[in-house]
């Protein structure tokens, strides 16, 4: 029997249909494979997130312990400087978070899960940064307070000497001026010693403005005390009242409106970071749920 020849047009139609079926089949397989890849990524990322819970809980507890210690108003507790134990705990937690972050970054995400991966890495970076910030804070705050502790007694001693006014006769007046000049120079040395300690500290961002303001205040107090001592050495030469005003202005500069506004701004920036963590966590939950719905 003679073979029948297929018309060219019909062959083209049938070929196109076969190609369409093949493409459709391959597309279905790719779609299924991609869903499996998304499900696998969600599973792997979730396992790493679960491991992050331990160091993050340690961060929360260390911060709470530190706040509780500080509420007692003490610089030491149980023979240790407050912050040492918390710093160790926080730095260990930070190292664990960084390690888990690297593991999370190494997990390959399929295209549909790219946004989830980006957000997870951003969240982990923020958690690591926040942990380092808290670690710095629990070390800085007690040491800053301890360094400033001598300032109060030194100021009180100076005020007692400067407030002495009863002196009769040229010799007694000269002796009184000399005593006040000596007290001012003693105060200046105490202030410079405090400045020396503070200058070696590295404050966290939230404490930066207050730290800088305190350094500036101490510098102003030291300079004013030196000028006053020189003036009194010469028998109250120059505008002593103006020098006293400058001294008072420097001492009160940490309470100025500008400094307070800067400190408030720093605290708000710190709070904003915490809010961003919470907001990003919510977005991640939503994205994970969206992907899970597409998988199922």
Describe the protein's topology.
Elements: H1 8-71, E1 76-77, E2 80-81, H2 84-106, H3 114-148, H4 151-162, H5 170-198, H6 208-233, H7 240-251, H8 257-295
Antiparallel strand pairs: 1-2
Helix pairs in contact: 1-2, 1-3, 1-8, 2-3, 3-8, 4-5, 5-6, 6-7, 6-8
Mean pLDDT: 79
The H/E string reads HEEHHHHHHH
Overall domain count: 2
Main sheet record: 2 strands, antiparallel
Number of helices: 8
Strand content range: under 5%
Which structural class do the helices and strands define? mainly alpha
Q: Which overall shape is indicated by the principal axes computed on the Cα atoms? A: rod-shaped
Helix residue percentage: over 70%
Radius of gyration: 35 Å
Low-confidence residue ranges:
1-26, 72-82
Distance between the termini: 55 Å
Order of strands, widest sheet:
1-2
Q: How many strand elements?
A: 2
What's a concise summary of this model?
With 296 residues, this protein is mainly alpha-helical. Helices cover 81% and strands 1% of the residues.
